[in-house]
Amino acid sequence: MHSMARMHFPLPSRPFLLLPHLFLLLAATVCGAKVPAIIVFGDSSVDAGNNNAISTFLKSNFRPYGRDFIGGQPTGRFSNGRVPTDFISEAFGLKPTVPAYLDPMYSIKDFATGVCFASAGTGYDNATSNVLNVIPMWKEMEYYKEYQQKLRSYLGDDKANFILSEALYVVSLGTNDFLENYYSSVPGGRRSQFTVRQYEDFLVELAAGQITELHRLGVRKVSLTGLPPMGCLPLERTTNFFGFNECVQEYNNVAVEFNGKLRKAVNRMNRQLPGLRMVLSDPYELFLEIIRKPSSFGFNVAQRACCATGLYEMSYMCNQQNLFTCTDASKYVFWDSFHPTEKTNQILAGYLTKEVLLPAFS
Predict the structure, then answer these.
(1) Strand partners of residue 172
(2) Smaller CB count within 10 Å for the chain: N or C?
(3) Which residues are catalytic, by number?
(4) What span, in angstroms and rounded, lies between the C-alpha atoms of 293 and 301?
């Protein structure tokens, strides 16, 4: 699922009047690697296929997922093609895809310039990963420790330590904590324990703890991704019967509020943790603009997704047997009812790379 599977930056004065293809070119501005590797933690916004290797119903390693990926392969990415971290890797002059750590096709040789530990359906909160039996953040970090050891064995301590300290770490999650946990009907869920503001604060504390632990492990360059306008995901609009299938404003308000709290936490940790350089990559405003004015970015459809009816399907309900799937995903903002198309991922990643990541880490 999706947290977009989010340093504050000013939006340019007229960013949305640019031709859509200019956004698509941003992610391809390769001028030599500014960082030696891209290392990814998070949820389905960035999962490259780790859920293929675990026992969960939340998978996407079948067509039509991946139909526009290199070779038309369904890799376990929740998209018709690449996810944002693939484009970020390419923009930094590294490889065009970041492989999943649990994918048996790859080895430490492949992971030396980029690796993904993300798991679709996870969150900052361990209780969120339990909902769909996916990899919790603490386990993603255990895999990272294992990776550190493998990299040192493969490259030697000096070279490995250079890569580990100079790599860009992308952390992208949070949407599931709200939509699959707090606002869901999970018995004894977090909603019975917290007000939504208290839960936001609880998640920010968890995020700060996780970043602090990564810092202890030698991590120094971090992009923490904010939440998207999660009330505008097709699934949320479909179920907003009394709101005439418009975006759920409460969810969007929570995303904005949570992103503001994350920004304060980022500033605080940059002051407190020696050598840490962390930025907040906040996709909210641009993503909302894409949804509100899709034609400005070359899209035709924003309210429903490409796959199946586009109203509520994802994972196994979005499969090859469904006859309703659109023929051209590039006309759609969303691929399934929870996840953007490759084109949307490319626009968002290109913009955040140009405006936030390259200025901070080049």
Answers:
(1) 42, 225
(2) C
(3) 44, 336, 339
(4) 10
Distance of CA 114 to CAs 95, 248, 255, 293, Å?
8, 36, 29, 34
Confidence of residue 33 (pLDDT cuts 50, 70, 90): low
Whose CA is closest to 57, among 133, 124, 125, 122? 133
Distance of CA 142 to the CA centre of its chain: 20
Please confirm whether the linkage preceding 234 is cis (ω < 30° from 0): no
Residue 45 to residues 58, 88, 100, 304: CA-CA distances in angstroms? 13, 13, 13, 18
Which residues are paired to 100 by β-bridges?
A: 116
CB neighbourhood size of 347 (10 A): 28
Q: Which two tokens stand for residue 357?
A: 């990541």
Q: Cα-atom radius of gyration of the chain, to the nearest Å?
A: 19
- Domain regions of the chain by residue span: 15-361
Helix axes 284-292 and 342-352, enclosed angle (nearest 10): 140
Cβ neighbourhood burial of 325 (10 Å; 0-12, 13-18, 19+): buried
For residue 93, give the nearest of 160, 27, 45, 41 by alpha carbon. Answer: 27
Structure tokens that stand for 197 in this block: 């503001």
Chain segment 167-181, per-residue pLDDT in tens? 999 999 999 999 999
- Residue 168 forms beta bridges with which residues? 38, 221
Q: Which two tokens stand for residue 57?
A: 């119903």
Query: Tell me: the pLDDT tens digits for 222-251?
Result: 999 999 999 999 999 999 998 999 999 999
The topology under which CATH files domain 15-361 is Rossmann fold (3.40.50)
